DNA sequence: GCCAACGTTGGC
DNA sequence: GCCAACGTTGGC
């Protein structure tokens, strides 16, 4: 049951993994996601070539900081098997993994970050999953219109 | 640092 | 299967 969505938003705390980290590494496995719905989006719906907004959460000025592309579809998140990892899950086994992660590749860092405030100020974006009250999901679908609007805001230095 | 809104866990 | 307690997220 694949969604038609081809655009996504991934949250990350800039202090632990920022768009600059992704630029440096070029590609990364988006591991450590421990929420079932977020997992389902990654495992069932994210496809190679899907575009991704990288969102810095929990920072002084939260907002969309950059752009990435899905470079590999979801495989079991190896950190769930790693005893030394904070993401270790004792209920998971290699034959029956629980958590999955896609790989994303750096595309660009926005010259101007589009802040949460900016997003909230646009009537056009009022339907965004990110802006829904109480939405704490770290993997969220974005519509093409929303995606386009946000990139436009970035290009206008807004 | 606060706390509201969630999701998960575990006792019953 | 219910639901209270607990842990986490994330804006402010």
Characterise the protein shown here.
Helix content is 22%, strand content 32%. It contains four helices and six strands. The mean pLDDT is 92. The protein binds a DNA duplex (12 and 12 nucleotides) through loops.
State the helix count: 4
Q: Kindly state the mean pLDDT as a whole number?
A: 92
Gross morphology: globular
Could you describe the largest sheet, including whether it forms a barrel?
A: 6 strands, mixed
Q: What structural class should be given to the helix and strand makeup?
A: alpha+beta
Strand content: 25-35%
**Major beta sheet, strand line-up:** 2-5-4-3-1-6
Integer-rounded radius of gyration? 15 Å
N- and C-termini, Cα separation: 37 Å
Low-pLDDT sequence parts: none
Topology:
Elements: E1 7-13, H1 19-25, E2 27-29, H2 36-45, E3 51-57, E4 63-76, E5 100-115, H3 116-121, E6 139-142, H4 144-155
Parallel strand pairs: 1-3
Antiparallel strand pairs: 1-6, 2-5, 3-4, 4-5
The protein binds a DNA duplex (12 and 12 nucleotides) through residues 11, 13, 35-36, 57-59, 62, 116, 133-136, 138.
What's this model, at a glance?
The protein is α+β, with helices and mostly antiparallel strands.
């Amino acid at each position: 049951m694949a969604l038609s969505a081809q655009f996504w938003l991934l949250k990350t705390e800039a202090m632990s993994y920022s768009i600059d980290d992704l630029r440096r590494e070029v590609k990364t496995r988006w591991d450590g996601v421990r929420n079932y719905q977020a997992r389902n989006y990654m495992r069932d719906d994210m496809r190679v070539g899907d575009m991704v907004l990288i969102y810095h959460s929990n920072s002084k000025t939260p907002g969309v900081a950059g752009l990435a592309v899905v470079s590999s579809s979801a495989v079991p998140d190896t950190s769930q098997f790693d005893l030394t990892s904070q993401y270790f899950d004792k209920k998971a086994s290699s034959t029956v993994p629980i958590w999955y992660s896609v790989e994303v590749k750096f595309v660009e860092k926005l010259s101007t970050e589009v802040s949460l405030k900016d997003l909230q100020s646009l009537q056009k974006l009022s339907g965004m999953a990110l802006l829904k009250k109480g939405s704490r999901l770290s993997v969220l679908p974005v519509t093409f219109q929303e995606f386009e609007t946000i990139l436009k805001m970035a290009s206008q230095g807004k």
